[in-house]
Structures are given as structure tokens and as C-alpha cells.
């Protein structure tokens, strides 16, 4: 595991965007595994800026996103489909048919999870998977659990997640109760993994996940077992890592 220290959020975003750019330049037909959340927003902005300058070409790139809320349609501005278009896909020359996000509107969970896992396999897996880190060590929607869930699956969101998300929706009833997510095995199949982390509020979980025991109670700790992981984190996030 390679740990790269950045000065602050902006520096983290530029360093991470540089790593993704290098991947796109070195292998123009790469499969990029992508994440949503607040942490990658700055790096997507940076990629868009470099694309607009003519430094990047996404025309042969394919993407697979980590997760999506079940029951939210694509037009909903809280869907991860919407997020990805808003922050990246609408601003670069990626082909829409080469972008993939789990289909939150497929009611048959087993069918959708099987389809998505097979799709990732048919693309040969992600060349580079981008991840954020949850405060409890979650990656994708893989929450702390007694065992690592391997494949793409449907998760019941915890009460605290539903509560935290309530503010983004018109009423509590509209908050999704489930989500589709790549499994830990799906993530671990990626050839390279890039984790971005920012802020002092993540310092404790960074220390636990990257220098503590490997346990499904801290899902990100499994990344210690992957042969090519780069963590780009700012000083604040690294402040408790010994
Ligand atoms: C996003 C995702 C989540 C986030 C994590 C961190 O697709 O799967 O695991 O990466 O919740 O979120 P932020 O970056 O908002 O702290």
C-alpha cells in the first residue's frame, strides 16, 4: 500500500486526478471504477479542467460505478447516476453507452446484481478503481459486518444512514431504504485501487483501516491485502496514522 500525503483537499484532488490522468494516457481504453460522495468532487473538477484544455481524451474509456440507491430514478438529483453526469460525464467526451451505474430502478435485486457483476467481468474488471472512505470504514455500501460480502449485492441501509440522508429529500418516505453495491470481492478484482481521503474527521478510520487488523468490521482494511493500492490523503486525514 502506497500512502501519498497531500497538503490539503485541493492538493489531494490534484494528486489523485494526476493518477487517473496517467491511467487514461497510458491505457486510453481503460475501465475506470468510479465513486460518488463529497471527496472525489474536486478530482472530477480537475479532470474536467484538463479535458477542456485538451490534455485528456475519454473517447475510449469505459466506467463502472460502485453503487446506486435502489428505487431512485436517474432524473432524481440524489441518484448516483445524476451525480456522475453532473460532475463528470456531461463535461467530457466519454461515450454515454460506455458508462455504467447499477440500475436503481430494477426491482429484482438478484437479477440486477447478477447483471452488474457479469457486466464488470465482461469488461475485464476495473483497471483502476477509485474509492472514498466512510467514517465507519465502509467502501461502496459495504458496511461493517461479520463477513466480507464478495459480489455485487443489495444492502439495507442502516437507520443512521437513512436519518443522515433525510435532509436531501422532500420527505422521509422518499429516502431510499436499500442500495446496490459492488461487493468486496468485486472491488478487490480491480487491477489498481486509488483511495482518496480528506479531513481530520477521517483520521481515526484511516489509522484503523490502513494500519489496524484486517477485519470485515472495518471493510476498507481488506485493501491491505491488495497488491496495488494507492491512498492519497491530506495531512489532516493522515494525522493519526503511525
Ligand atoms: C460513494 C461510496 C461511499 C463513499 C463514502 C465516503 O460511491 O460508495 O462509500 O465513498 O461514503 O463519502 P464521502 O466522500 O462523502 O466522505
Order of helices and strands: EHEHEEHEHEEHEHEHEH
According to CATH, what is the topology?
A: Rossmann fold
Radius of gyration: 17 Å
Oligomer: single chain
N-to-C CA distance: 14 Å
CATH architecture: 3-Layer(aba) Sandwich
- Work out the strand percent: 15-25%
Which structural category do the helix and sheet elements fall into? Answer: alpha/beta
Q: In total, how many domains does the architecture comprise?
A: 1
Task: Compute the number of helices.
Answer: 8
- Order of neighbouring strands in the sheet with most strands: 1-10-9-6-2-3-5
How much is the average pLDDT?
96
Instruction: Tell how many strands the DSSP assignment holds.
Output: 10
Q: What is the 3D form? A: globular
| Ligands and ions found | fructose -6-phosphate
Amino acid at each position: 500500500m502506497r500512502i501519498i500525503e497531500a497538503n490539503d483537499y485541493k492538493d489531494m484532488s490534484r494528486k489523485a486526478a494526476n493518477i487517473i490522468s496517467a491511467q487514461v494516457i497510458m491505457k486510453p481504453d481503460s475501465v475506470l471504477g468510479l465513486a460518488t460522495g463529497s471527496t472525489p468532487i474536486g478530482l472530477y473538477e480537475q479532470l474536467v479542467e484538463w479535458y477542456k484544455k485538451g490534455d485528456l481524451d475519454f473517447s475510449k474509456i469505459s466506467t463502472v460505478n460502485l453503487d446506486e440507491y435502489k428505487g431512485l430514478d436517474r432524473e432524481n438529483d440524489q441518484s448516483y447516476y445524476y451525480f456522475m453526469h453532473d460532475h463528470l460525464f456531461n463535461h467530457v467526451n466519454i461515450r454515454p453507452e460506455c458508462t455504467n451505474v447499477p440500475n436503481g430502478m430494477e426491482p429484482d435485486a438478484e437479477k440486477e446484481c447478477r447483471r452488474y457483476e457479469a457486466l464488470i467481468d465482461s469488461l475485464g474488471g476495473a483497471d483502476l478503481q477509485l474509492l472514498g472512505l466512510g467514517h465507519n470504514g465502509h467502501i461502496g455500501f459495504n458496511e461493517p459486518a461479520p463477513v466480507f460480502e464478495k459480489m455485487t449485492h443489495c444492502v439495507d441501509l442502516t437507520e443512521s444512514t437513512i436519518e443522515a440522508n433525510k435532509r436531501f429529500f422532500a420527505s422521509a418516505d422518499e429516502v431510499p431504504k436499500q442500495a446496490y453495491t459492488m461487493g468486496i470481492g468485486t472491488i478487490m478484482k480491480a487491477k489498481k485501487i486509488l483511495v482518496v481521503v480528506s479531513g481530520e474527521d477521517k483520521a481515526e478510520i484511516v489509522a484503523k483501516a490502513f494500519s489496524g487488523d484486517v477485519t470485515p468490521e472495518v471493510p476498507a482494511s481488506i485493501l491491505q491485502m491488495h497488491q496495488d493500492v494507492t491512498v492519497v490523503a491530506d495531512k489532516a486525514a493522515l494525522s493519526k496514522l503511525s
